[in-house]
Amino acid sequence: MNFQGSRRRGEDGIAMVIDFLLSNARLVLGVGGAAMLGIATLAVKRLIERAGRAADDEKVEQKLAESWEELSLVSASPTLIKKGIEGVVMKHVAKAARQQKADLCQQPQTSTPEALSKVESKSKRLQLCVLTLQERLQQYYHTRAALAPHEVQRAQSLALDICTEIQGFLHSRLPDMPLGEMSLGGSLLDDLQVVSADHACLMVPLQLEASLWRLIPGEETLLTHPLHWMVRRVNLEYFPRGRSYWDRYLVGGYLSAEAVVNMFSKSVMETINWPSISSTLDCLVRPVLGGTDLKLEIRPLNEFGAESRDQSLFISMLPLLREEDVVLTAQTELTSPWVNAWHLSLYPWENQRLTQLDTADGGHRRQMLKILKAVCRLNPALRPLEAAPLSNLILHLSDGESNWSESSLGARFQQCIMELIGYLENGALHSYFKPAVNLLSGLSEDQVDQMGFMLYCAVTEPEILLI
């Protein structure tokens, strides 16, 4: 009882110091200094935990020495610390740790059989609770990231039902519109969706006459953006306007992605009898209006016919053009304000490359990608990091690191954290297939600061990302 009470007083003293420092860190030290303070705080936390465990079976001095080695990361971290901050942090940390050490040394010797039995039982329970980073990653993957097969099957079934309804409507309403076979695509189909099966992609391929249309790479257009391609109408002298169905969506001699999206919005989203489809599918189907994309919300109904509290499924309708391995999508939210621009999707290339690498060496790159996606989705500070930067992070890392076996996931996870910190510091993560594209260009300065702070804290305690 004396030991526990003394330890509690020591923890209260440390808590007061840490609370004061952290509450004023962003204001006084800035983001970089606050990040270093976070690292120091986490290091002290591990110091206390190790010293507490050491009191049962080893010398306190030895464990404290091992724990202090972790604080060297504060000095070795990137040069975000302003002059004098390191001294302030280390001074308060050292003072709090000395108090904790003094309290630990006051532990009374417990020599009675009952006390030894209780200590031994507690030690065994602690050992059972302690997991390695590798074990924590596997646990996190199976409990948080990976989706249950029945959940994926249900979402895919609903999406396919909607696909059938929309395709049947378009064939009957606009029979002369040259469309390919609609299908599902994206992460739900490729087993890359994480946390919950809440979104799907409906691919709507447009069929263009090869002799009338030409796809222009972004680098060859006036936009000079590698991902902003254009589709030019050619051979007008031999085949005047009107010979192609898609001529009606020309703007300045180019097929307008915005005009195509507006057409589908009016002919599908605003025209289909969604209440009738809802009654057929026994779920509530309604268009999500007000945005630039074509999106539907599907919400399950309970046994009384009212909206269920279960997770909604969102289906994005995506008009696209295919030519060999090039896929262009009509996503005006990505190409605005250019009404004629089509977005070059790099997702098929990235997914194919990851699959090829894993197949060649039996690696777990796709599993690592799913873990990182779940971490970013469940952590508010990291949520702005989407799938594309994470996929390219792993692809770049794979060029220099060949061991992606299951047993090395812990090391690769820590490597990904350090690589991300470096990319954020430089303000650039270049696309693996289009190096001129910076995948971090859409992040604000505040978002970069928040992500950098969280990742710096995870350098010494990567487990904080797996909570």
Features:
467 residues, alpha+beta, nine-stranded mixed beta sheet, two-stranded antiparallel ribbon, 16 helices, globular, MID51-like_C
List the helices and strands and how they pair.
Elements (H helix, E strand, L loop, with lengths): L1 H27 L1 H28 L2 H11 L1 H5 L8 H21 L7 H17 L3 H13 L3 H25 L9 E3 L13 E7 L7 E4 L11 E6 L16 E2 L2 E2 L1 H13 L4 H8 L1 E5 L6 E7 L12 E11 L2 E4 L2 H4 L6 E3 L2 H15 L3 H14 L8 H14 L8 H18 L18 H16 L7
Parallel strand pairs: 2-9
Antiparallel strand pairs: 1-2, 3-4, 4-11, 5-6, 7-8, 8-9, 9-10, 10-11
Task: Describe this structure as you would to a colleague.
The chain is α+β, with helices and mostly antiparallel strands and 467 residues long. It has 16 helices and eleven strands. The strands form two sheets. Strands 1, 2, 3, 4, 7, 8, 9, 10 and 11 form a nine-stranded mixed beta sheet that branches. The model is unreliable at 1-11, 63-98, 100-110 and 124-128 (pLDDT under 50). InterPro entries: Mab-21_HhH/H2TH-like, MAB21L/cGLR, MID49/MID51, MID51-like_C. This is Mitochondrial elongation factor 1. One of its GO terms (molecular function) is nucleotide binding.
Compact summary:
This protein has 467 residues and is an alpha+beta fold. It contains 16 helices and eleven strands.
How many β-strands, per DSSP?
A: 11
Share of helix, binned = 40-55%
| Residue fraction in strands | 5-15%
Helix-strand string: HHHHHHHHEEEEEEHHEEEEHEHHHHH
Radius of gyration: 28 Å
Shape, per Cα inertia axes: globular
Give a quick account of the main beta sheet: strands, pairing sense, barrel closure. 9 strands, mixed
**Which stretches are poorly predicted, pLDDT < 50 over at least 5 residues?**
1-11, 63-98, 100-110, 124-128
Note the gap between the termini. 31 Å
| Structure classification | alpha+beta
- Mean of residue pLDDT values: 81
Number of helices: 16
